[in-house]
């Protein structure tokens, strides 16, 4: 297993301090603060570790309260809210420096059958027919902030193939939707709990950014401030995070310095395996505002 994948598996494997208390570490992937998908995946891992019998997560709803400190551990406190005959509910609080930075509510269900339907997957090129994104030229990379350089040059655990690539450094205006194939870069074990935590981690990539498309802006621009405010994830059907999945994302609205994005995640056979929604902060500030010389 490569260091990037094993690092992520270790990141999601929390240290148990008490029955309902866990501790996780952070990894700097080039973001200014702790990556939201990391906290999401770790909180789900903590909740899953308190289940009394096999039950699969089917939904989670989270709020990001404060930016996370990359250099400090995160403590996850789990409240065993309910264990019913078919469903269990867990509430998780992520704490740093004595303050809550994140809340999660997750629901789990025993396996059972029922009626089924789903929206069909769009027809798109296969991932192997899409070229990986080209590297940023060295002369351009040298002009970027160090954090952005780390983000763009990282060799992460997930591989992404954009169906309709966009130049994030010089973003054009375009309709607010995109489709991205992604997968963990190498096979891992069969535990479904691990694959759900991995998908929770990956679901934070590319989601909110879709809301910037009509405005020709991106996270990499120094006058653009972006941060996740909440995140919702529903698991519909079994899947593997180490096999290609299609993330189909759209943004129906942006207003009040907030943008909304929605996603549907399909496997290669066209089965809808998960759905997401996220609202986030999107501020475009004047140079004087960004340097603090104006209110």
Task: Please describe what this structure looks like.
By secondary structure, the protein is α+β, with helices and mostly antiparallel strands. The protein has a single domain, classed as Beta Barrel (Porin). It has six helices and 13 strands. Strands 1, 2, 3, 4, 5, 6, 7, 8, 9, 10, 11, 12 and 13 form a 13-stranded antiparallel beta sheet that branches. β4 and β5 form a beta hairpin. α2 runs antiparallel to α5.
Summarize the structure.
It is globular and about 55 Å long.
- CATH topology, which one? Porin
Report the major sheet: 13 strands, antiparallel
Helical/strand content category: alpha+beta
Q: Give the uncertain stretches in residue-range form.
A: 290-295
Along the chain, the helix and strand elements come as HEEHEEEEHHEEHEEEEEH
CATH class label: Mainly Beta
Shape: globular
N-to-C CA distance: 50 Å
What is the number of E strands? 13
Helix segment tally? 6
The tally of structural domains comes to 1
Detail the topology: elements first, then pairings.
Blueprint: H1 3-12, E1 15-18, E2 21-24, H2 36-48, E3 56-64, E4 74-83, E5 87-96, E6 99-109, H3 138-141, H4 146-153, E7 158-162, E8 177-184, H5 192-202, E9 224-228, E10 230-235, E11 245-255, E12 258-267, E13 272-284, H6 287-290
Antiparallel strand pairs: 1-2, 2-4, 3-6, 3-10, 4-5, 5-6, 7-8, 8-11, 9-13, 10-13, 11-12, 12-13
Helix pairs in contact: 2-5
């Amino acid at each position: 297993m490569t260091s990037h994948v094993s690092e992520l598996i270790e990141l999601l494997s929390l240290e148990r301090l008490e029955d309902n208390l866990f501790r996780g570490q952070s990894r700097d992937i080039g973001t200014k603060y702790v990556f939201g998908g990391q906290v999401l995946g770790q909180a789900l891992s903590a909740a899953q570790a308190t289940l009394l019998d096999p039950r699969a997560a089917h939904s989670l709803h989270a709020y990001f309260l404060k930016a996370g400190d990359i250099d400090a551990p995160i403590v996850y406190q789990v409240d065993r809210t309910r264990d019913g005959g078919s469903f269990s509910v867990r509430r998780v609080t992520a704490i740093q420096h004595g303050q809550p930075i994140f809340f999660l509510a997750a629901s789990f269900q025993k396996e059972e059958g029922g009626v089924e339907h789903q929206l069909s997957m769009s027809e798109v090129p296969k991932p192997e027919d899409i070229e990986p994104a080209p590297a940023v030229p060295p002369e351009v990379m040298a002009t970027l902030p160090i954090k952005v350089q780390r983000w763009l040059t990282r060799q992460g655990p997930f591989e992404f193939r954009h169906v309709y690539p966009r130049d994030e450094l010089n973003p054009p205006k375009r309709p607010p939707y995109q489709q991205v194939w992604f997968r963990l870069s190498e096979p891992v074990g069969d535990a479904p709990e691990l694959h759900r935590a991995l998908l929770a981690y990956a679901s934070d990539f590319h989601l909110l950014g879709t809301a910037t498309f009509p405005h020709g802006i991106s996270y990499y621009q120094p006058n653009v401030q972006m941060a996740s405010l909440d995140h919702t994830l529903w698991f519909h059907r079994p899947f593997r995070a180490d096999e290609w999945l299609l993330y189909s994302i759209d943004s129906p609205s942006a207003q009040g310095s907030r943008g909304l994005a929605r996603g549907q995640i399909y496997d290669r056979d066209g089965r809808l395996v998960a759905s997401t929604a996220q609202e986030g902060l999107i501020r475009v500030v004047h140079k004087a505002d960004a340097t603090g010389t104006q209110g």
